[in-house]
Amino acid sequence: MSSLFTLMSVSASGMGAERKRAELLVENLANAETTRTAEGGPYRRRDVVFESEPQGSPFAAVFQREFGETAIGVGVAGVVVDPREPELRYLPGHPDARPDGYVAFPRISPAEDMADLMSATRGYQANVAALSAIKDMIQRSLDLLR
pLDDT, tens digit, for every residue of 33-56? Predict the structure, then answer.
């Protein structure tokens, strides 16, 4: 038996994870043509790695101790940097061109990142809908107690 407050915590964890994913996807799109970074070389695509993590609520702590159940939410385990070699384009007039005329560009597919961004947005919206449903259940429970 999970408390409604624990379920809210699970939805909130999903919203936080999808927000971080969306932030990185937007960063990737913004740097799709960046050939020079402070670290040197072109920008490297970044992506999040999700992990499951137990969720709790101070209100549900008693139930969790008594029933031994914990809700599992999602968290960000880390950020992975794309290890692939950059894409080389022949642009001899470019300021970052090598002596052979090639410029190293990030391996970023704007179409793929836009599709991933839409997926992150839908995941966020699904968690908002779940949170709203939980809020409505709590409100109806309070109305019944009046």
Answer: 999 999 889 999 999 999 998 876
| Confidence check: pLDDT of 71 > 90 | no
- Which residues does 5 contact at the CB level (< 8 Å), separation at least 6? 57, 59, 60
Residue 99, burial from CB neighbour count under 10 angstroms (0-12, 13-18, 19+): exposed
Residue closest to 29 by CA, chosen among 136, 91, 94, 116: 116
Strand-pairing partners, residue 73, are: 53
Q: Which of 22, 20, 12 is nearest to 128 (CA)?
A: 12
d(CA 23, CA 145): 42
The CA-based dihedral angle spanning residues 56, 62, 67, 68, taken in that order and rounded to the nearest 10 degrees: 50
Q: What is the separation of C-alpha 36 from the centre of its chain, rounded to a whole number of angstroms?
A: 25
Query: What distance in Å separates the CA atoms of residue 32 and residue 9, rounded to the nearest whole number?
Result: 35
Q: Which amino acid is at 64?
A: Q
| Residue 100, C-beta contacts closer than 8 angstroms, at least 6 positions apart | none
